[in-house]
Write a structure and sequence with these properties.
alpha/beta, single chain, about 475 residues
Length: about 475
């Protein structure tokens, strides 16, 4: 047989094998039951907003992707908040909110479910696990090549199954939300609409679906579903089970009312919600790694602020009045540029071009999200201060807790936002280089785990933003 004929025979055989390869891609989300009513929406229509519960000091985190390295680095940051740094100051109970993508979602979801008790076993239950042991990784197998052509080497029977069995069990979002602080937003990416997909009730109500029944392990698996390595996680839209309209901000043209920092992403997400309600356009939502749309997980916060409709949202009113020091730490364990082909005339190869193009898109979206977030924070602080300074004495008495420290009088303009980046660049050169070159795998040697945890602690301890927050905390 001529060489070209053999090639097409191989391609045809792989295509047939791909068609015959079964994927575990059944939709995972339940429809609203009973069909949504105003009372149901009032109870389930939004997650508990970030709320310091009477405290004047608030800490929020965004945890980036980066495999097990990112999960370990984030764990070191949490250890520092618990008092693991030289200062010994334990501010973990001031941690109010975490947004996460990909590997960072392992840490965020675990501590969202377990709180302070998670320190006892997170290392053994998560970081020391080999989360790749049930995954297909070899490209020498024709079956694996066929699966790659069909949409991904792995599906729910691999990573998600391991997360269910070894890490999160059958925990649902109802359990995650019942615990309260820290409130956790796990982020994936909607592949069709090219938008962030945060696992929060308003988005699930757009699907006419009940988030409370959804398993945390499946949300984390979606957040970590790197394209081609994993087939997308599938959700189903249920427009026939929804009796309530979309929120006002999702209607055509309403996004123009959002703040300038959020108009673009809000417009895209509003269109996605309209698509979810249109059975002729979408019946299934295909979710992949949250880092594809924003590797720092800031976009969902930007959206929440832009569509809140209040001067203080997504904080609730009482929290906005009580807060005096808010620290937002962007924990960045992302992958820097790499490749020997940049040192020579030849290359990159086709595979390297594809990977570099994907990384370019991810990094570009992440940088744009970070810039928009920085502008939003300045506007947010000014808006809250204007709101606080307009309150009557009666309104103030309703919100100010009795427990505010004596000798620290409240002023309407006494509100400081600190935003800092905790990343490998916070560390000295050789150490930073080792961390940047650490593989973004789902299993790492124990020595690498140790180094990533220690790096998170030290980078947090040495963060100027963290230092200013600690020195300015209301005691």
């Amino acid at each position: 047989m001529p060489r070209a004929g053999r090639l097409w025979t191989c391609v045809a055989a792989l295509a047939l094998a791909a068609c015959a390869t079964p994927f575990d891609n059944a939709p995972l989300n339940a429809p609203l039951s009973p069909p949504s009513t105003p009372a149901f929406v009032a109870q389930s229509g939004s997650p508990p907003p970030p709320d310091p519960s009477g405290g004047a000091n608030v800490i929020a985190l965004s945890l980036s992707g980066g495999g097990m390295r990112a999960a370990a680095f984030a764990f070191g940051v949490l250890q520092a908040l618990q008092g693991g740094g030289p200062t010994g100051t334990d501010v973990f109970d001031e941690l109010t909110f975490i947004s996460s993508v990909s590997g960072g979602s392992l840490t965020a979801a675990y501590f969202g479910l377990h709180g302070r008790e998670g320190f006892a076993d997170f290392r053994a239950r998560v970081l020391d696990q080999d989360l790749e042991r049930e995954m297909r990784m070899s490209m020498l197998s024709p079956v694996n090549i066929a699966r790659l052509l069909a949409g991904g080497l792995n599906d729910r029977s691999n990573l998600a199954h391991t997360l269910h069995r070894e890490v999160f069990g059958q925990a649902t979002f109802a359990q995650l939300h019942r615990r309260g602080k820290p409130e956790v937003w796990i982020n994936a990416s909607d592949l069709y609409n090219r938008t962030p997909f945060p696992f929060i009730p308003p988005v699930f109500l757009g699907l006419c679906s009940d988030l409370s029944q959804f398993h945390v392990a499946d949300a984390v698996a979606a957040s970590m579903a790197v394209p081609l390595v994993f087939a997308p996680i599938v959700l189903q839209t249920h427009p026939d089970r929804c009796l309530t309209p979309l929120p006002t901000w999702a209607l055509p043209g309403a996004e123009r009312q959002a703040g300038q920092a959020g108009q673009g992403v809000v417009r895209a997400v509003a269109q996605a919600l309209r698509n979810y309600r249109d059975a002729d356009r979408m019946r299934y939502v295909k979710l992949v790694d949250g880092g594809i749309t924003d590797n720092n997980g800031l976009s969902s916060i930007l959206i929440a602020r832009a569509v809140s409709g209040t001067p203080y949202g997504p904080l609730e009113e009482g929290a906005a009045v009580r807060a005096r020091r808010i620290l937002f730490l962007v924990v960045d364990a992302g992958r820097p540029p790499a490749g020997e082909w940049a040192k020579q005339q030849d290359g990159p190869s086709g595979v390297e071009v594809a990977l570099a193009a994907a990384d370019t898109a991810v990094d570009s979206a992440t940088r744009l999200g970070a810039d928009a977030f920085a502008r939003m924070v300045d506007e947010w602080r000014a808006s809250i201060i204007r709101f606080r300074c307009s309150l009557s004495p009666e309104q103030l008495r309703r919100h100010l807790p009795e427990g505010l420290p004596a000798g620290a009088p409240w002023r309407c303009d006494d509100l400081q936002f600190e935003v800092g980046v905790i990343g490998f660049d916070n560390l000295e050169g050789a150490r930073a280089d080792r961390l940047k070159n650490m593989p973004t795998r789902l299993v790492l040697p124990k020595a690498d785990i140790d180094e990533a945890i220690a790096a998170g602690r030290d980078a947090t301890r040495d963060s100027p933003a963290m230092g200013r927050y600690l020195s300015g905390r209301v005691r």
